[in-house]
Specification:
The chain is an all-alpha fold and 212 residues long. It is built from eight helices and no strands. The longest helix is centred in the N-terminal third of the chain and has 43 residues.
Amino acid sequence: MPGHEVLVVIAGAVALIAAGTDLWKFKVYNALTLPALVAGLAASTWAGGWEGLAASGLGALTGFSLLAVFFIMGGVGAGDVKLLTALGAWLGPALTLRVFLASAIAAGVYALVLSVLFGGLATTALDLFMLADRMRRGDVRPSLAPAIAAETARVDRRRRLVPFAAMTFLGLLAAVFVWRPDDGGLEPTATPRTNAFAPAAALATTPEGAPS
């Protein structure tokens, strides 16, 4: 299995575990995300040297940056930010961006379903409009809405909250298997060294008919 596919598979396993704890307790634990971040940086460095570390670090920074603003505005929890940061270390910047966009779409659909099933459709639409207007104006001041921690303590939290880690797992699946640009939908965080993940014979194969 090529090296970048191994990295994506491991990232998928991390996202799956986070989705499980998010659906169960609306929590994403540091015991998962922080080791995953360090391991992603280390694995990419081992596979691709300094270039791999640079790509991995940029991916982690991309994941953090994409959700940090939403965290400040009260839209996601700190665990969600740490999860996408950790996944970015395994996926690289371009694929992390696609995962985020697909996750945001999934979260929007989930929120719409909650609104239709349990009421509050007009309130949800107004909240989304106000959020979009704040983003347009560059207003990233902390939200006055109840903190995510307070919301997760409510007995009706499953009717009010979107488990964003679970949406991130769905976004990762969509980015890998559905949203496949010309590069095949996978972006290596590093070019594997010979014998790192792929057999040397596979790396040395020449096209049919080409001089060897």
